[in-house]
Amino acid sequence: MEVTMKFGDKVTMADIRKLHDMEDVVFDREWFEETEIRNRDVYYMFRDLAKNDSELEAIKAHHLRYDITVIPPAMLGSEYIKTVGHYHPRVPGTNIYYPEIYQVLEGSATYLLQKVKSGEEDLVLDVVVITAEKGDLVLVPPGYGHVTINASDKTLKMANWVCRDFSSVYEPIKRLSGASYFLLKDGFVKNPLYRNIPPIRHLKPIAYDDLGLGSGESMYELVHIIEKLRFLTAPQDFTGFLTGVL
């Protein structure tokens, strides 16, 4: 797999997630223990992309970041390949967590979103699964952790816009050996380390209207109307919009 990406006039090196990075969240422990090559690539993250210097300056000035992640098809033993999964912290001085927005560029993605009780990360309040195809948008609202799964036989390529002023929180999901559900070939199974796991709510991707995009248009083009993305950096000012997405 290519470890560099040309985006506009810039070439970016991937941050590579290796199999050994997945150790804490893999469902099939027996498979993992028997796997000898743990340094092999699992997926690729191309961070802080822009097509030129002026657009990069605009993105940074608005405290945003545009990334692309590439997840080739594979199985982690009996489980479909996935990201490690993470939560976002609160916006400083508020009780609102940072959101994030994704778009599938190639292939298809299964996004698993989960909300847990504050201070009791093993107590699940809500689980949502959204299956997205090329061009679809998926908004992760404040307070939801999320994992992306490639349950297809094609490479998944997806983009995200996110506030650049925080670091993602991986520890709760790693401590609980993954999200509240794992996706196997036979379907979703619950993670027994969580309590009170509700049934999955299956939802559709969001509409484009509120963002000013045409259907199927690349959301990178929001760089030209970048104020439309302020809900990512100041979600406390958009609680009505963000509360309604799920």
Taken as a percent bin, the fraction of beta residues is 35-45%
Instruction: Report the strand count.
Output: 16
What value does the Rg take, in angstroms? 18 Å
Uncertain residue ranges: none
State the strand order across the main sheet: 3-4-5-13-8-11
Entry keywords:
16 strands; four-stranded mixed sheet; 246 residues; mainly beta; six-stranded antiparallel sheet
Could you characterize what this model shows?
The chain has helices at residues 29-34, 53-61, 171-175, 230-233, 239-243, and strands at 4-7, 10-13, 15-18, 41-46, 64-71, 75-76, 79-80, 100-106, 108-117, 120-133, 137-140, 145-149, 156-163, 181-184, 187-190, 201-203. It has 246 residues and is mainly beta. Strands 3-4-5-13-8-11 form a 6-stranded antiparallel sheet. A hairpin with a 2-residue loop joins strand 1 (4-7) and strand 2 (10-13). The mean pLDDT is 95.
